């Protein structure tokens, strides 16, 4: 297990925060060009449930050329055999660098320190679909107190994925930046400290970090280069501060994306959970707003 001693972490964290203010502007303002802009298909989940083929065609017509899926189950994507699903993507000029796939503590065998056959198949099928990443998207509420077991599950998944030729990733919500483990560290710190960064990619959901009243820039400085993917969705000004189309909310994406290279962002993924109009209009507007942003 990859471990950063608590004392060393505190020392390193303090130095990183202090040192970041002394970086020359030529380093502080490095910008990573946006080569990969995609859409998390959960944003249009109702449309995907009704007619995934027509929905993917419409998404491509908007100008998206990458998607991040969420609908894998038992060797199928959105009810389609993976070969059929991939043909739909290809015929519409879409690629899928990453997808979300649910895992559970029941997918880890403590005795053998290995994954369940179900989890292995999910990772193997992600490889068959040509993905670069398979992302663990959400820890169920009832499993969150089992921090050490979560670390073991993710480590096993990441090790298996590495051998299979794909990168294992973790996507955050707000609780990772609020809930603390038995030693006082936040859950996000456990993941960043206890799992070797060589085998685990982090997908920062910027909305949820801000919702938890954290500043993404602080985490970039503490863990530079760790955040290979990001979810770009905005935070509404009014209660209950739900998601809103990118560019129409309160998050200062200009300041955040100015530090994209420090963060390590390679893949930017539009996501939307709530809508002012319709899901399809929302993701179209979010993409247009993203492309207007300059930093």
Walk me through what this model shows:
This protein has a single domain, classed as Divalent-metal-dependent TIM barrel enzymes (TIM Barrel). A hairpin with a 7-residue loop joins strand 13 (234-235) and strand 14. It is built from 13 helices and 15 strands. Helices cover 41% and strands 18% of the residues.
Identify the notable features of this structure and list them briefly.
eight-stranded parallel β-barrel, three-stranded antiparallel beta sheet, alpha/beta, 295 residues, single chain, TIM Barrel, disordered N terminus, 13 helices
What's the helix and strand layout?
Layout: H1 6-20, H2 25-28, E1 37-40, H3 45-50, H4 52-62, E2 66-69, E3 72-73, E4 76-77, E5 80-81, H5 82-91, E6 95-100, E7 108-109, E8 114-115, H6 117-128, E9 133-136, H7 147-164, E10 167-171, H8 187-194, E11 200-205, H9 206-211, H10 216-222, E12 227-232, E13 234-235, E14 243-244, H11 253-257, H12 260-263, E15 267-270, H13 279-292
Parallel strand pairs: 1-2, 1-15, 2-6, 6-9, 9-10, 10-11, 11-12, 12-15
Antiparallel strand pairs: 3-4, 4-5, 7-8, 13-14
Helix pairs in contact: 6-7
The unreliable regions are: 3-32
Helix proportion range: 40-55%
Order of H and E elements: HHEHHEEEEHEEEHEHEHEHHEEEHHEH
CATH topology descriptor: TIM Barrel
CATH superfamily: Divalent-metal-dependent TIM barrel enzymes
| Whole-number total of structural domains | 1
Q: What's the CATH class, please? A: Alpha Beta
Identify the CATH architecture.
Alpha-Beta Barrel
Q: What's the pLDDT, averaged over the residues?
A: 90
Supply the helix-strand structural class. Answer: alpha/beta
**What is the β-strand count?**
15
What proportion of the residues form beta strands (DSSP E)?
A: 15-25%
Note the overall shape: globular
Q: Number of helical runs?
A: 13
Largest sheet: 8 strands, parallel, barrel
Strand order, biggest sheet?
1-2-6-9-10-11-12-15
């Amino acid at each position: 297990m990859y471990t950063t001693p608590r004392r060393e972490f505190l020392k390193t964290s303090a130095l990183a925060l202090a040192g970041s203010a002394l970086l020359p502007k030529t380093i502080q303002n490095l910008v990573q060009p946006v080569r990969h802009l995609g859409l998390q298909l959960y944003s249009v989940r109702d449309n995907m449930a009704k007619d995934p083929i027509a929905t993917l065609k419409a998404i491509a017509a908007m100008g998206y050329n990458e998607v991040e899926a969420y609908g894998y189950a038992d060797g199928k994507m959105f009810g389609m055999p993976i070969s059929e699903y991939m043909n739909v993507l290809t015929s519409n000029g879409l690629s899928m660098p990453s997808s979300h796939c649910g895992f559970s503590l029941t997918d880890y065998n403590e005795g053998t320190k290995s994954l369940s056959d179900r989890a292995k198949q999910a990772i193997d099928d992600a490889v068959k679909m040509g993905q670069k990443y398979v992302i663990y998207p959400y820890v169920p509420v009832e499993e969150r107190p089992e921090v050490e077991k979560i670390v073991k599950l993710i480590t096993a998944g990441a090790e298996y994925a590495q051998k299979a030729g794909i990168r294992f990733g973790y996507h955050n919500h707000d609780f990772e930046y609020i809930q603390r483990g038995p030693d006082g560290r936040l859950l996000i710190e456990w993941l960043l400290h206890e799992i070797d960064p060589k085998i685990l990619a982090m997908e920062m959901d910027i909305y949820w970090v801000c919702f938890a009243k954290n500043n993404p820039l602080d985490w970039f400085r503490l863990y530079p280069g760790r955040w290979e993917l990001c979810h770009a969705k905005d935070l509404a000004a009014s209660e209950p501060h739900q998601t809103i189309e990118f560019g129409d909310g309160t998050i200062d994406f200009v300041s955040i994306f100015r530090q994209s290279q420090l963060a390590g962002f390679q893949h930017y993924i539009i996501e939307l959970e709530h809508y002012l109009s319709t899901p399809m209009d929302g993701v179209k507007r979010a993409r247009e707003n993203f492309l207007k942003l300059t930093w």
